[in-house]
């Protein structure tokens, strides 16, 4: 697909199918704690999904739902939730089996087809605005009522 720039791994002490159900519960409509949880940033999230059931467009605020926005992919067979936007970014969350429950792997990929040389420059500034893996672990753990921590 693209070259991985970064990866984090989170152990979630819940069955992998339970974690996958949380990540892959995606349907058209407003993003919330029960829809596209990985895009949910609290009650102030102003994002809507159109399309489905495997490929969606995510639109923020008054963005035109017929164009633009981010591409959201759900592959239930592979337990994959992916977001792709801009000219270079693709974030993939996958759920794998783990002895303590599930392993949630988050990868950021460089999918640029042109100006690939610019990605490292953009990536440096993007990294500063990212939430830490421990923040993501906390969100997932709290939502499922289980322990979740960096692997």
How are the SSEs ordered, and which strands pair?
Blueprint: E1 3-12, H1 16-24, E2 29-30, E3 47-51, E4 55-60, E5 70-75, E6 80-85, E7 89-98, E8 101-110, H2 119-129, H3 133-144, E9 148-150
Antiparallel strand pairs: 1-8, 1-9, 2-3, 3-4, 4-5, 5-6, 6-7, 7-8
3D architecture notes:
The chain is an alpha+beta fold. The chain has one domain: 2-Layer Sandwich (Alpha-D-Glucose-1,6-Bisphosphate, Chain A, domain 4), CATH 3.30.530. It contains three helices and nine strands, in the order E-H-E-E-E-E-E-E-E-H-H-E. It has a nine-stranded antiparallel sheet with strand order 2-3-4-5-6-7-8-1-9. It is globular, with a radius of gyration of 15 Å. The mean pLDDT is 87.
Helix content: 10-25%
Secondary structure tally: strands: 9
How far the N terminus sits from the C terminus, by CA atoms, comes to: 24 Å
- Write down the CATH topology: Alpha-D-Glucose-1,6-Bisphosphate, Chain A, domain 4
SSE pattern, N- to C-terminal = EHEEEEEEEHHE
CATH architecture title: 2-Layer Sandwich
Structural class: alpha+beta
CATH class term: Alpha Beta
Shape: globular
% residues in beta strands:
35-45%
Which stretches are low in confidence, meaning pLDDT under 50 for 5 or more residues running? none
Tell me the radius of gyration. Answer: 15 Å
Strand order of the largest sheet: 2-3-4-5-6-7-8-1-9
The major sheet is characterized as: 9 strands, antiparallel
Average pLDDT figure: 87
Number of helical segments? Answer: 3
**Domain unit count:** 1
